[in-house]
């Protein structure tokens, strides 16, 4: 066991724990990509100075530090693969300043996404790119994976709404990356380098986020199609036609059936798009524009009236995660993946997922942020069955490499973590990975920060 | 003179020149920030392979390489401060592919901005962030400085519309940074690191750009105010209120007078906002929303009727650059600067520019992309007058440091180049600059690419 007694000279007793319960909790995440790997010790810093002191002392001693927040990642991003220190940032959860005139808020990294919305609602503002897990995930975690959500199709990713961040580097030095101005051409863009780097280059200790005016009106809808190809083609057409839609989510037939089974409902059991529109005015025109595009793809059921309870309209989408877990109690989602492709290739990647599922006779519920060309899927197998684990991996590899071949990416929003390391060179080539490694070595020469992530070992 | 004969084994004779005319043309830009500094030789590569061969051979020999395109920069960004090779990319000017379904276009770096618009117009698309110089500047140059333009207030910067770039590094290796998918969390964001790095980290040889649907309707307008404070407050209010406006440009009283003098016109001679609205529908509502905000700041003249010839409405803004040059024939704009601040501080920075102008009794026409909190100014002095050069620099320093103190940036869109190197540590701190230097050394250890830029020497 690593000697971590030096931490007691930096932090107070209630900020350091080596109990099994704390170590176990910080040794896993929500996914299956990483084996459980508890840290030697968990610390809860409460200031930038404390984060800096921990990092510089750990780097001096060659002890790994893995930042941890809500633990909602699924690729093992925050699982301390090499032990050492789990740096839990959830006690740094202050809203520091709200500046409605600048359309900005300053927060500490442990602030929950939904709490940002709550802090700015009184000013008529909101934080648009919140992920589905936004009522649990922290801003720091969202920045670490460059997360996104259902409204990314209209508003962009978390990274697009980060203006300035304070970052502690591995040697304990503190930098401010980005600017509070709406644009800059000053020096290298360290902000976007840190965003999405999964805690391997630095630890974000403060963030200035941009906000948007809360739209006065919201309308939701859904459309079910006779074939999956119709549904995905309709989603792609909506995006390339420029309809002002704030969410376009896909749920495939298997997923829809799982929800009905789980909820005891009778939603249409076909491939379905879930839609949301947000605007101050002109909503009806966008909805009618949308309806015309949907109609061109022979929908079997369209609900766009604006009368039905919005929660009821979207319920199949909202219940999906739990429904998948309940439907096949003996099967496990060994690869809960997320890939993204250019929108013109969205139909191809979804069709590929289903073709692979059919070829292997393995259920793969398929859903996701269709408007971003972003597909989520669960490869469900019985891990105790002979060959099942290898087959699940073969399927997973086929889907991810197909997405890359279509000009897309191995991960649209979950990050590489441990689960997707093998695909980094497939997507970025050896020279691209070598460039990333050179940056890692330049910023963290001793490899203190979150080792065992992003790069293949 | 550096021996550059090796270039003839890589390129054909018409791709290499050492004539005085070619060297002189590549030794300056549009600004006054950099002294003329001709390269030893100019080369015009026509392929990625040729760029790669030139870079690897130059790095082996320790010869500087400075990428050059349209030469429209103003901070000396593309002036070869240390001689060597000027790498002119203007012959790599092919539109490679237009994919309307993906809302994307692939281009070589030498393509002129306006030619992108022309290539996609038939598909009802356009490239939103074009700078004012978009009919001369190249895509490669825009990427190098992370340029922006009048519509950035609505659509964002050039970098926001770059999806994937092919980049040749100093050692000649070629990477693809970014992805054609609309979002990614895969590895480090090399794309945004290269964007805005002014050719000091790599040379962009291909870019996939995102496009937007061309709005069906455009309306322009302008509003003149009794005081500068009213004009800047109105601009800030427009942005923080969320009016859907596609351009908010400021021209101050001195600038307006210069235009009248130059054109022989009788435009209102007060601080004026120039406005543009773009939408498929609902334009009138946004215009009326805008009018209400303008009215709250006591405008003396508002032209928003949509009847007047658009070119006539915006003429004072369009003629401004030439008018400034003509108004004081004996004075020179020693510091044509560009700073940006959070929108809530826009009034403060503009007031500061005028206060400094008054205190020094130096004319400083002030204008710019108000909606982005981006101010442009010319410090006009007679360089032959004793002390004038030092005074101009003192004024310049006061304005740039004030912008940084207000939470802003030393440059919103022109880059650091040579002219703003002294402000890099002021804005980013010593640790920030050290981090940037570490990245520079990791990617270009021999310092081949565009030496003498960005970093203070």
UniProtKB/TrEMBL annotation, chains A, B:
Single GO molecular function:
D-lactate dehydrogenase (cytochrome) activity
SUPFAM superfamilies named among the record's database cross-references: FAD-binding/transporter-associated domain-like, FAD-linked oxidases, C-terminal domain
Q: Where is the FAD-binding PCMH-type domain?
A: 35-214
Q: Which GO terms describe its biological process?
A: lactate catabolic process
Q: Where is the composition biased (Polar residues)?
A: 1-19
Provide this UniProt record's keywords sorted from A to Z: FAD, Flavoprotein, Oxidoreductase, Transit peptide
Q: Does the keyword Mitochondrion apply?
A: no
* Chain segments carrying region Disordered: 1-32
EC numbers: 1.1.2.4
* Entries under Gene3D superfamilies matching the protein: 3.30.465.10, 3.30.70.2740, Vanillyl-alcohol Oxidase, Chain A, domain 4
Co-factor(s): FAD
What superkingdom heads the lineage? Archaea
The record, for PANTHER family, names: D-LACTATE DEHYDROGENASE, D-LACTATE DEHYDROGENASE, MITOCHONDRIAL-RELATED
What is stated as this protein's family in its record?
Belongs to the FAD-binding oxidoreductase/transferase type 4 family.
Name of the protein in its database record? D-lactate dehydrogenase (cytochrome)
Q: What is the organism field in this record? A: Halorubrum halodurans
């Amino acid at each position: 066991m690593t000697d971590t007694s030096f931490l007691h000279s930096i932090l107070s007793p209630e900020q350091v724990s080596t109990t099994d319960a704390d170590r176990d909790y910080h040794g896993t995440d929500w996914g299956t990509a990483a084996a459980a790997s508890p840290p030697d010790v968990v610390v809860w810093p409460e200031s930038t100075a404390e984060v800096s002191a921990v990092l510089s002392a750990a780097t001096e001693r060659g002890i790994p530090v893995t930042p941890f927040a809500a633990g909602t990642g699924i690729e093992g991003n925050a699982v301390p693969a090499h032990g050492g220190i789990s740096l839990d940032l959830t006690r740094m959860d202050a809203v520091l300043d709200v500046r409605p005139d600048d359309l900005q808020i300053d927060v500490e990294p442990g602030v929950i996404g939904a709490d940002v919305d709550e802090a700015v609602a009184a000013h008529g503002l909101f934080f648009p790119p919140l992920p589905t897990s936004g009522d649990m995930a922290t801003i720091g975690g969202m920045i670490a994976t460059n997360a996104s959500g259902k409204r990314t199709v209209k508003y962009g990713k978390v990274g697009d709404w980060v203006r300035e961040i304070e970052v502690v580097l591995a040697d304990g030095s503190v930098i401010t990356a980005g600017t509070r101005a709406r644009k800059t051409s000053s020096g290298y863009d360290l902000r976007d380098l840190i965003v999405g780097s999964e805690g391997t280059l630095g630890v974000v200790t403060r963030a200035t986020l941009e906000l948007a005016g809360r739209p006065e009106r919201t309308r939701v809808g859904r459309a079910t199609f006779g074939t999956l190809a119709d549904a995905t083609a309709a989603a792609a057409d909506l995006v390339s036609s420029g309809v002002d839609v704030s969410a376009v989510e896909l749920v495939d037939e298997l997923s829809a059936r799982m929800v009905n089974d789980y909820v005891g409902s009778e939603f249409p059991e076909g491939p379905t798009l879930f839609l949301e529109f947000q605007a101050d005015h002109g909503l009806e025109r966008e909805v009618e524009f949308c309806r015309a595009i949907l109609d061109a793809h022979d929908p079997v059921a369209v609900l766009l009236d604006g009368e039905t309870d919005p929660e009821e309209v979207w319920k199949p989408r909202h219940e999906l995660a739990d429904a998948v877990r309940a439907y096949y109690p003996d099967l496990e989602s060994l690869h809960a993946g997320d890939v993204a492709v250019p929108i013109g290739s969205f139909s191809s990647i979804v069709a590929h997922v289903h073709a692979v599922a059919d070829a292997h006779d393995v259920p793969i519920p398929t859903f996701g942020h269709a408007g971003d060309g972003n597909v989520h899927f669960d490869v469900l197998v019985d891990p105790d069955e002979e060959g099942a684990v290898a087959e699940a991996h073969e399927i997973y590899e086929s889907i991810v490499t197909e997405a890359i071949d279509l000009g897309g990416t191995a991960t649209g929003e979950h990050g590489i973590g441990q689960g997707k390391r093998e695909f980094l060179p497939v997507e970025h080539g050896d020279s691209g990975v070598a460039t990333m490694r050179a940056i890692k070595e330049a910023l963290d020469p001793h490899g203190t920060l979150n080792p065992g992530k992003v790069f293949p070992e």
